[in-house]
Design goal:
The protein is α/β, with parallel strands linked by helices and 261 residues long. The protein contains ten helices and nine strands. 46% of the residues lie in helices and 15% in strands. Helix 1 packs parallel to helix 2 and helix 4 packs across helix 5.
Length: 261
């Protein structure tokens, strides 16, 4: 299953978790076309491979990702930039359409489109020394990779605009207080904590998780009436699954449910 691995993206599948590691440490894991394409292929693998229940995205070396590669900025013509961002957009859309949880494991810097890649995930776990920065305006650009969609919905348009205008880093604790980060761990314990969090989700009711992700995201641009009806229809479907039957039986027998078996 590791045919999608490239020099810019490391891939490991273990105990129901697809671990993806951005692997350009010398450039703080700045995006390359090869990395983005590898990520798209990995998300497609997660979509089609039933044994994969959770995806994690992390960075090698000193950072999660610096986002766009500054060394290559200003070298593309408008059509080249349009195509590059189109490739990134396809990745972001595929992540949101994947009906499985995606965890961003952030250490060091999550900057620019690297920050937005984390925002496209469903859960953000952070090492305590991490910094988050939307650095686009420092080089005269706007946010891409979905940042102008995700961030205002997450923290409100006024705080989002301030972060985008000022392009100043915020700490993990500040990101936590804004609701961007779910949990913060010490750097020494971070890999183990991320793995344990991912394994916990991988052992859960994957069908229910997929519907939860889909409806929670859809609720951001739906009416209450629409979501109530979707909950009604979806619950009738989920109530027929083996996971639901196992959950009810485990509750009655006062034991931990064994989902997905």
């Amino acid at each position: 299953m590791n045919y999608i691995e490239t020099k810019d993206l490391l891939v490991e599948i273990k105990e129901g978790v697809l671990h993806l590691t951005l692997n350009r440490p010398d450039s703080l894991n700045a995006f390359s076309a090869e990395m983005i394409t590898g990520l798209k292929e990995a998300i497609q693998l997660a979509k089609t491979e039933a044994s994969i229940h959770v995806v994690t995205i992390s960075g090698s070396g000193r950072a999660f990702s610096a986002g766009g590669d500054v060394k290559n900025m200003g070298q593309k013509d408008p059509l080249g930039t349009y195509d590059h961002i189109g490739n990134l957009n396809e990745l972001i859309l595929s992540m949101k359409e994947l009906e499985k949880p995606i965890i961003a494991a952030v250490h060091g810097y999550a900057a620019g489109a690297g920050f937005n890649l984390a925002l496209a995930c469903d859960i953000i776990l952070s090492a305590e020394e991490s910094k988050f920065i939307l650095s686009f305006s420092k080089v005269g650009l706007i946010s891409d990779g979905g940042g102008l969609y995700f961030l205002p919905r997450l923290i409100g348009p006024y705080r989002a605009k301030e972060l985008l205008f000022n392009a100043e880093p915020i700490t993990a604790s500040e990101a936590y207080s804004l609701g961007i980060v779910n949990h913060i761990y010490s750097l020494a314990e971070f890999p183990e904590e991320v793995n344990e969090y991912a394994l916990k989700l991988a052992r859960g009711p994957s069908k229910a998780y997929g519907f939860i992700k889909k409806l929670a995201d859809k609720s951001l641009h739906s009416t209450l009436e629409e979501i109530l009806e979707l909950e009604r229809i979806t619950q009738a479907t989920v109530a027929t699954t083996a996971d639901h039957r196992e959950g009810v039986l485990a509750f009655k027998e006062k034991r931990t449910p064994n989902f997905g078996k």
